[in-house]
Amino acid sequence: MMKAKFTGAFLLLTAIALSVTACGRGAAPQAQAEPNAEVAVATATIKTGTISETISVTGELTAYNDTVVATKLGGKIAEIRVREGDRVAKGQVLAVQDQTDLRMQLRQAEAAVRAAEANLQQAETAARVQPDQVDAQIQTAKAALLAAQARLRALQTGARPQERQQAEQAVRAARANYELARANYERAQRLYEQGAIPRQQLDSARTAYEAAQAQLRQAEETLSLVQEGPRKEDIEAAEQAVKQAEEAYRQALLGRSQIELAQQRVAAARAALAQAKAQYALLKQQLDDTVIRAPFDGVVADRFVDIGTMAGQGTPVARIVKLDRLYFEAVLPETLLAEVRVGMPVTVKVDAFPDRAFRGAVEAIYPAIADQARNLRLRISLANPADLPLKTGLFARGEITLRTYTNVPLTPKVALLEKGGITRVFVVEDGKARARTLKVRATNTEVVYAEGVKSGEVVVTRGQDLLSDGQPVRIIDSGN
């Protein structure tokens, strides 16, 4: 009797051990044990922790700044200052083209600028003095015209009564003066002949007499002209003088147009100076363009020319790559569009550094569908560490963190039973297995965060395929 019981117990333990070994090896599920039969199981305790829900994406690393620097002008390469692998700063000289011809042209353009500046200065000086000169000419011509017109009017009008009276009075005064001078001269002659006066006094009397005689003739002639009136020839000459004065005045007025012409010459000189300066600036810019510089900080990935190379316009000189920030494009199924947002963190790994993880972020989600499968494309950016280990062209794998749960119960994935779209676990309570239906919220390779269980509860991790709800269990391994 005792032997029979021992034999039965041995067989039961052997069966349980075989079933546990089969479940641990991932064998096909066996038939569930009898409802009241005790089943040997392994368990684990649900712990509190943090878990993130992620999406996996892949792509090829690309630099934001990856540029082939080319020549802007044609010409021979005179200097090369970099090689592949060199780090360069923004503005650093990569190569220099021959500058001989351009320097000669620049000196000629500089001389042309100086000549244009001198011409402008002369034109401005002339424009400043031109108005004063024209005004003076106009005033002079106007005064001459008024004088000519007055003389003509005087000739046409003839002498006035007052003028005749003045002329007659002048004749009478001149005649009286003449009579007095003649008497003085005759008396001086007699006294000189008598030796009463010197020769000098006689000469003075004769000079006074001759002067009085001349004044009398002039007064008489003036009176005669006043009495006779102007001659026809004098009037015609006066009319011609007026016409000449009028023409001179008209020409002087036309001089005002010279002021505008002077201003136009100033404007033309300024335009010529601007053109000369523009030509100088163009040549100076072309001279600067013969110096090929790095457009940004980076590394020389390729060099395409050597000293002496005849480079045409647009000839590639070097390829500059900036490695401090990289990105890769990844495909996103449309079903996940609502889950992914710009700014979400991404953990990036590359095969070249399997033990390193790089931090990135979702930088952009492109607005258009990318392919027939209605996938979208998104851009993942990441900063290259200080030692710049990442290079363009490397294959990258990214894990986009959709959300992170903290202080939540974490259930081992080996405890899950999935059938018909339903996820369950068995929780050990009072020596019996109790089935729980779970709602999985997040998962990774080892644990899941699911609603339906709590931290501290014990779940079956091996042998659960043999269980039914309420079945007795015996824990043979309570490892984590």
Task: Give an overview of the whole structure.
This protein has 480 residues and is of the alpha+beta class. Helix content is 42%, strand content 33%. The protein has five helices and 20 strands. The chain has helices at residues 2-24, 100-157, 161-194, 199-228, 232-289, and strands spanning 39-45, 47-60, 62-70, 75-80, 87-88, 93-97, 291-293, 298-303, 310-311, 316-332, 345-350, 353-369, 376-383, 395-412, 417-419, 422-429, 432-443, 447-451, 458-462, 471-477. The strands form two sheets. The chain has a 16-stranded mixed β-sheet that branches. A four-stranded antiparallel β-sheet has the order 7-6-4-9. β16 (422-429) and β17 (432-443) form a beta hairpin. α2 packs antiparallel against α5 and α3 runs antiparallel to α4 (199-228). The model is unreliable at 1-29 (pLDDT under 50).
